[in-house]
Design brief:
mainly alpha
């Protein structure tokens, strides 16, 4: 009898315990790092337990147990060719083959249909683009995506800096919000909407508004994280120095966390620049000529001829 029953060794117990930990972590969506931390706590809580003390379940080991022992199974399932390639026929065929291979349909993440015809599925039919509704949607996207792409190209310019972000993004959001306020989705889209039944028109208009609102929400969620910084440096894009206040310079320095700036000396330089600017404007002469007339040290001299 003793020869038929093989006693369970300590190593088997430790291996089983590690496998259970991995299975529990995967089931409850725990990370490998969190799981390793739990194992280390178990060792300290139960120091007298031999299996608990010897168990090790780090990130690398957990990954190997999960993929190569418990499995995620990988393989190819053969599907019978569907001659008619209708959506209903393909659906029934796929469901039947997956069921035969014990694949739970509720756990399928995605399904590719690269080799099906162009009319596969009610949401991917080529005839949608030829319908009145489809043309209205396409004209709408043409207008909205044009605004997005124009702003995108401005952001990708080599001379675009952080100073330009508030202007570019602010202009885009304002343009999109104005479309919501006026319910204007493009002239051709408006024409088609006016020809549709009221129920269909309201449904499409609502979907257009929702689409634009989500774009604005997506932009603001990321942009607002650093909005204070963008607003603090945006004044640097002004071409009229007279409109730049000294407080703007101070806010910019604090926002950029610039160390070692003497604000009192900065104020003196600020006044000198404004004074020089006034001389340039009153003279009516070119900046090149004034550079020769105003050498260093006399640029604020009132005796200099205008």
């Amino acid at each position: 009898m003793d020869e038929l029953i093989i006693p369970v060794g300590e190593l088997d117990k430790v291996s089983a315990a590690g496998t259970v930990f991995v299975y529990h972590g995967v089931k409850h969506s725990h990370s490998y790092v969190s799981q390793a931390c739990t194992v280390n706590i178990v060792k300290k809580i139960f120091p007298d337990c031999t299996s608990g003390h010897n168990i090790s379940c780090g990130k690398t080991k957990s990954h190997e147990i999960c993929c190569n022992v418990l499995g995620v199974k990988r393989g190819l399932i053969g599907f019978i060719e569907q001659a008619t390639e209708t959506a209903i026929g393909i659906k029934n065929m796929l469901k039947g083959v997956l069921t035969e291979n014990d694949v739970d349909l509720k756990k399928i993440v995605s399904l590719g249909a690269n080799n099906t015809n162009m009319n596969y599925g009610c949401n991917h039919s080529v005839y949608f683009f030829q319908s009145h509704d489809g043309q209205c949607v396409l004209y709408f996207l043409q207008n909205i995506l044009f605004d997005l792409q124009r702003s995108n190209l401005q952001l990708q310019r080599t001379n675009t800096t952080i100073v330009d972000l508030l202007r570019i993004i602010g202009s885009l959001v304002t343009s999109l919000q104005r479309r919501i306020d006026t319910n204007y989705f493009g002239f051709k889209s408006k024409q088609i909407l006016n020809e549709l039944p009221k129920e269909k028109k309201d449904a499409l208009s609502k979907s257009f508004l929702t689409y634009i609102q989500r774009i604005i929400q997506y932009i603001t969620n990321y942009f607002d994280q650093n909005r204070e910084l963008y607003e603090a440096v945006s004044f640097l894009s002004k071409t009229d120095i007279d409109n730049i206040e000294f407080d703007c310079l101070i806010n910019c320095i604090f926002a950029l966390i610039v160390d070692g700036v003497e604000l009192d000396l900065l104020f003196i330089d600020y006044n000198e620049i404004l004074s020089t600017l006034k001389i340039i404007k009153r003279s009516g002469r070119s900046l090149r000529d004034l550079t020769l007339v105003l050498p260093s040290g006399v640029k604020n001299d009132p005796t200099v001829e205008n």
